[in-house]
Specification:
This protein has 289 residues and is α+β, with helices and mostly antiparallel strands. The chain has 6 helices and 16 strands. The N and C termini lie far apart (38 Å). Bound molecules: fe (ii) ion. Fe (ii) ion binds next to loops. The site of fe (ii) ion has 3 residues, from loops.
């Protein structure tokens, strides 16, 4: 049996008796799946693992996405996406400083195949900053009025990497006024409200930068709606903040939580993380009323 120790926050739990260095048996995988949906974020501290072990463990949970971008993948390990400021260059969607907007998202929401879960492993972390915030989208949905829930259930959101490009540009320019990117990337349309395939619980599903529009709405209106929704959905009461130690591995449920990186000193400190991404298997469709 896996041992669960909840955090002080509304989501998140630590699991201390599972070694990611070993391939989990079917019972353990089932327990992890259940705990993942129940707590949204699972923290496995003090894991001393190789890239191969990380891939083997993650593969037991589901099919892995391969990293398309050569610059962001670990040499010889296409399954591992490298995040941070060590190696080939900076891969980060953290704001440049505390004044700038966070980039809340669910991994691969803008890809044809979304990510069901992600596993992030800390190789090197700065002493200060570079935390990851997680916000629970069940609480976000439950916290809306019945009328707002009804409105949200009908909305289809447009997601694109253009929104991320635009976010990175805004970081340089210090301008945080617009949400619409230049739309040079492919767009993916998904409902704003989804039901968790394991439990039927409803949650919001969007990002505040990667979501660039709402079907049938003009850009300005959509931008305003998304800003307003983010303020509600990602409020502190719905969050767990993970302050990383080296060798932490954190697994999260992209069906239930959004996440965002916080700033760190990219010039003078080192942050190196490995991520594996477990593919979504369930259809993401509008709720049949
Ligand atoms: Fe992410």
């Amino acid at each position: 049996m896996i041992e669960i120790e909840t955090t002080e926050s509304v989501i998140g739990a630590r699991v201390r008796n599972v070694s990611l260095g070993q391939i989990p048996d079917l019972d353990t995988v089932k327990e992890i799946d259940i705990a993942l949906e129940r707590y949204g974020v699972l923290i496995f501290p003090e894991q001393d693992i190789t890239p191969r072990q990380m891939i083997n463990f993650s593969s037991a949970l589901g099919d892995l996405e391969l990293t398309e971008l050569e610059a962001a993948r670990l040499p010889d390990f296409k399954e591992i996406f490298v995040v941070g400021n060590v190696g080939k260059g900076l891969v980060s969607f953290s704001p440049a400083n505390e004044e700038q907007e966070l980039e809340w998202h669910s991994d691969h929401i803008h890809h044809e195949i979304a990510a069901r879960a992600s596993l992030l492993y800390a190789k090197e972390v700065p002493d200060v900053g570079g935390d990851t915030l997680f916000a629970c989208m069940y609480y976000a949905y439950d916290g809306l009025t019945v009328a707002e829930q009804q409105t949200c259930r009908k909305l289809e959101m447009i997601h694109s990497a253009s929104g991320l490009d635009h976010y990175l540009e805004k970081q340089k320019l210090g301008d945080s006024n617009s949400l619409s990117g230049n739309r040079k990337h492919k767009e993916v349309v998904r409902p704003l409200v989804r039901e968790h395939p394991e439990t039927g619980r409803r949650g919001l599903y969007f990002g505040n930068q990667v979501t660039i529009g709402i079907v049938g709405w003009d850009d300005a209106e959509a931008g305003e709606f998304i800003r307003h929704l983010t303020k509600h959905a990602c409020q502190e009461a719905f969050q767990y903040r993970h302050q990383w130690s080296a060798q932490d591995a954190v697994l999260w449920d992209n069906r239930r939580v959004l996440h965002a990186g916080t700033p760190y000193d990219v010039e003078n400190t080192r942050r190196l993380m490995h991520r594996t991404t477990i593919r979504e298997t369930a259809p993401i469709t509008l709720i049949d009323e």
